[in-house]
Write a structure and sequence with these properties.
Chain B: This is Dipeptide transport system permease protein. Chain B: Pfam families: BPD_transp_1 (PF00528), BPD_transp_1_N (PF19300). Chain B: Belongs to the binding-protein-dependent transport system permease family. Chain B: It comes from Paludibacterium purpuratum. The complex is a heterodimer of chains A (531) and B (342). Chain A is α+β, with helices and mostly antiparallel strands and 531 residues long. Chain A is built from 18 helices and 20 strands. Chain A has 3 domains: 132 residues, Periplasmic binding protein-like II (D-Maltodextrin-Binding Protein, domain 2, 3-Layer(aba) Sandwich); 129 residues, Alpha-Beta Complex (Dipeptide-binding Protein, domain 1); 216 residues, Dipeptide-binding Protein, domain 3 (Roll), CATH 3.10.105.10. In chain A, strand 6 and strand 7 form a beta hairpin. In chain A, helix 11 packs antiparallel against helix 13, helix 16 packs antiparallel against helix 17 and helix 17 runs antiparallel to helix 18. Chain A is globular and about 75 Å long. The N terminus of chain A is likely disordered. Chain B is mainly α and 342 residues long. Chain B has 15 helices and no strands. In chain B, helix 5 packs across helix 10 and helix 10 crosses helix 12. The chains are: A alpha+beta (531), B mainly alpha (342). At the A-B interface, helix 1, helix 5, strand 10, helix 9 and helix 15 of A face helix 2, helix 3, helix 5, helix 7 and helix 12 of B.
């Protein structure tokens, strides 16, 4: 560790020597400290912003500010006719970064891709044995079960062999956890007896080179002058993350000019930000959905008429005003309108408490019933205030005779019990991972997710057949058709009431040029400059 | 004195045992484990969950986990953070100087302003100044730190532009870390490389002002009130009247004869306020983006980072004990009667 300190000290001295003028510096008021800089180990945006979006690249990447998959470290790829084999042709001349302890002797090649995935797939991988860790996101996307092997065809070609056809595989590879590590650096760390430095001194091929991290204070990067993508490369010399956990303070820092971009503003501050002549607020419909799930294994929620009655008695516009403070749009389907295959023809049932009461009577509950309504204890992008939302729904339901008892637990406990199916109705939500419809419909409502993210416990064959077929079909037009039908079934059967897609706001100083809001809630600073 | 120190040191043993048991038990009483917290809404394969818990040693019975923890403590090993995988001692020593710098600065503010206000209020008892100081100190004592902090930022940083909003130094200065105390490091950097670091020391001081006021306000209010009442008591003593009758100057009577004797209860309060400072540091550090141990511990609790919570709190508790220990010794210096009694 003493060696690590010496290296850090040397790095900081070097950084001090290269102190640059503020004109080439972009300061981002980030929301928290990253847990580390090895993207494979983590699942949160805070970790990915500081590593995957700055230091690393992936074989394929999401276009900045969009969900479209574009070439990254692979220039092109071929998919076999059976859809089980993906061959990637790698970009030549891509340089890895260097730091005080590592200077790369070669360019990026197939060995780096094989190392990156072998470490996540193979428990006997030498590096993984020396530095044991888990890869939760990689596992959650079902990759360990589906990837049979990753092989080097030649120095610039890599082939992935899959067990079953997975139409979202390419999009999965564009996700942060699939960031490509340097095999040469890993070998060196192993040889030096410091494999853990992979998590503290990252080496990648990305637009920014990691310089120094000071927990809870700052992360410093400098531009990668050798970056392969000249059009979408770094446009500032220095990128600094000023870690500022309190959203009100981030706003004040932005106003005082102490940073140029601020993460996650409070909804209540957005109007003030828009009114400030020095600031600019970028707005995008959030790639998320907040919803109310009905546990269809519990009576009387197994009754469709009851679910319909509960659904149409909820006053969504009132929730959007009070809970989202106008920073959201009503959700109709369990995916946002920006997701391809979104079915525009599906409509919500009209808000009608009288009809809802009649439906309840018809279902055999003229005097209503008792129910538990679970409210999340935390603020999430898709639901800024679950407690208030629960109170509003409770009041709406009381009008049709349904007596809801609001239940809440600590967040970890909440999710654990909900996965166990203890709830009746539950407020929860989802943020899209990879821009694929399967990531909404199958993950939230598929039969295979009944013990996982499918909190409705709804396993309905006609729906499930469509999403399973969608996942194993490569043709986008065909998939769109299947998912469009699936959304109709979900609305007819109502395992959930979709509430809202929150609006994502990203305030920046007026002199920031080229910043784009990521649909995935990530923050990328390549291609961004300061006037 | 030696036997007194030994006795106090011996008392540390049950204190440490109690603290370790309490923190170990309390953090585990919060539902959820580190793996669940990291995964969040995502699916957690039970087999992977079990494997991760096994890797972290969290699948063992609780008493074995505690024995492991106590054993490593006895070997001077504070373990590794479950989240960042960095040694707890290294994280603590990296972050502690920031908290220390803030605490010292806040305490200086509290003692200097509190003592002066208390002394003047006692001398001018019943005056407008006395009522004003006591009213203000009551207000200061009652104000939540996060609210006061935000108010200070909005007034002095955003509206008047006198002080920076948050952080320890302007990020244009990339100060090399030497001591971890930003004022010292900035001074050293400016001294060694005036071309690149001109104004760094002044900037570091400017960053200290608002957090010190926010954190020091409650102890300052307590010290001011305590000094006032203690001074009033001593001012009634015969020897003060004698000193005055002897024709000593008013300053000498106040500062030598009265204040020194009035300091004992004030010192006790100062010692006790270290605990308040540590508690307040959590909020102050969050508001002012101050990278100290308060923020570190909160983050660790949220992430169920057991080794960090257990050992971080142990370190803070030991620090509070140590400061109170020093205060006990200072009693003797401030008042020889106590030293003789012992």
């Amino acid at each position: 560790m003493r060696d690590a300190k010496k290296v850090l000290l040397a790095a900081s001295l070097l950084a001090a020597a290269s102190y640059a003028s503020a004109s080439g510096t972009l300061i981002y008021c980030s929301e928290g400290s990253p847990a580390g800089f090895d993207p494979g180990q983590y699942t949160a945006g805070t970790d990915f912003d500081a590593s995957a979006e700055t230091v690393f690249n992936r074989l394929v990447q999401f276009q900045r500010g969009a969900t479209k998959v574009v070439p990254g470290l692979a220039t092109k790829w071929d998919v076999s006719s059976d859809g089980l084999s993906y061959t990637f042709h790698l970009r030549s001349g891509v340089k890895f970064h260097s730091n005080d302890s590592f200077k790369p002797t070669r360019d990026f090649n197939a060995d780096d891709v094989v190392f990156t995935f072998d470490r996540m797939l193979n428990k006997d991988n030498a590096f993984r044995k020396a530095y044991p860790t888990d890869f939760p996101y990689f596992s959650d996307m079902g990759m360990p079960d589906n990837i049979v092997k990753v092989e080097k065809v030649d120095p610039m070609t890599v082939r992935f062999q899959l067990k079953t056809v997975d139409a979202s595989f390419l999009a999965d590879l564009a996700m942060s956890f699939a960031s490509i590590q340097s095999a040469e650096y890993a070998d060196k760390l192993l040889k030096d007896g410091h494999p853990e430095w992979i998590n503290s001194q990252p080496i990648g091929t990305g637009p920014f080179v990691f310089k120094r991290y000071q927990k809870d204070a700052q992360i410093r990067f400098v531009a990668n002058k050798q970056y392969w993508d000249k059009a979408e490369g770094p446009k500032v010399d220095n990128l600094i993350f000023a870690i500022t956990t309190d959203p009100s303070v981030r706003f004040q820092k932005l106003k005082a000019g102490e940073c140029q971009v601020a993460a996650y503003p409070r909804p209540a501050d957005v109007a003030l930000m828009k009114a400030d002549p020095k600031l600019h607020v970028l707005t995008q419909s959030g790639f998320n959905v907040g919803y109310l799930g009905y546990n269809v294994l519990h009576k009387p929620l197994n009754n469709l008429q009851v679910r319909q009655a509960l659904d149409m008695s909820i006053n969504k516009p009132a929730i959007l005003t009070a809970v989202y403070q106008g920073q959201g749009q009503p959700a109709v389907n369990p995916m946002p309108p920006t997701q391809w295959s979104y079915n525009k023809s599906v409509k919500d049932a009209k808000f009608d408490p009288t009809k809802a009461k009649a439906l309840l009577t018809k279902a055999g509950f003229p005097n209503g019933f008792d129910i538990t309504l679970w409210a999340m204890p935390v603020q999430r992008p898709y639901n800024p205030n679950a407690k208030l939302m629960a109170e509003m729904i409770q009041s709406d339901w009381a009008k049709i005779g349904v007596r809801a008892k609001i239940v809440t637990y600590e967040w970890g406990e909440y999710l654990k019990r909900a996965k166990g199916g203890e709830h009746d109705a539950i407020l929860v939500g989802w943020t899209g991972d990879n821009g694929d419809p399967d990531n909404w419909l199958n993950v939230l409502l598929g039969c295979e997710a009944v013990n996982g993210n499918n909190y409705t416990k709804w396993c309905y064959k006609p729906f499930n057949d469509l999403v399973i077929k969608g996942k194993s079909t490569a043709n986008v037009a065909e998939r769109t058709k299947l998912y469009t039908q699936a959304q109709v079934i979900a609305k007819q059967q109502l395992p959930l009431t979709t509430i809202a897609h929150s609006t994502v706001n990203e305030p920046t100083a007026k002199n920031v040029v080229g910043f784009k809001v990521s649909p995935f809630g990530l923050n990328s600073f390549y291609g961004v400059s300061v006037k | 004195m030696f036997s007194f120190i030994l006795r106090r040191l011996w008392l540390l043993v049950p204190s440490i045992l109690g603290i370790t048991l309490l923190t170990f038990g309390l953090i585990r009483m919060i539902p959820g484990d580190p793996v669940e917290v990291m995964v969040g809404e995502r699916t957690l394969d039970p087999a992977l969950h079990a494997a991760a818990l096994h890797r972290l040693g969290l699948d063992k019975p609780l008493y074995l986990q505690y024995l492991d923890y106590a054993g490593s403590l006895l070997h001077g090993n504070l373990g590794q953070s479950l989240v960042t995988r960095v040694n707890v001692w290294d994280e603590f020593t990296t972050l502690f100087p920031a908290t220390l710098e803030l605490a010292i600065s806040a305490m200086l503010f509290a003692v200097v302003v509190g003592l002066l206000a208390g002394v003047v209020a006692a001398i001018k008892r019943g005056s407008l100044f006395d009522h004003g100081v006591m009213g203000l100190s009551l207000t200061g004592f009652s104000m939540p730190i996060f609210w006061l902090g935000l108010l200070l930022i909005m007034l002095f940083s955003v509206r008047l532009g006198w002080t920076p909003v948050s952080g320890r130094i302007d990020l244009a200065f990339d100060i090399p870390v030497r001591t971890g105390l930003m004022t010292v490091d900035a001074w050293l950097a400016e001294h060694n490389d005036p071309a690149n670091f001109a104004g760094a020391f002044k900037d570091a001081l400017a960053h200290l002002i608002l957090p010190s006021i926010a954190l020091g306000t409650i102890p300052m209010a307590v010290i001011a009130r305590m000094t006032r009442s203690s001074m009033l008591e001593v001012l009634r003593e015969d020897y003060v009247r004698t000193a005055r009758a002897k024709g000593l100057s008013p300053a000498r009577v106040i500062f030598i004869h009265t204040l020194r004797n009035a300091l004992i209860p004030v010192l006790t309060v100062v010692g006790l306020q270290v605990g308040t400072l540590m508690g307040g540091a959590v909020l102050t550090e969050t508001i002012f983006s101050w990278p100290g141990i308060g923020k570190w511990l909160i983050d660790a609790i949220q992430r169920r980072d057991y080794p960090v919570v257990q050992n971080g709190i142990l370190m803070v508790a030991l620090l509070v004990i140590l400061v109170n220990f020093i205060v006990d010794i200072l009693y003797g210096i401030a008042n020889p009667r106590i030293r003789h009694a012992k």
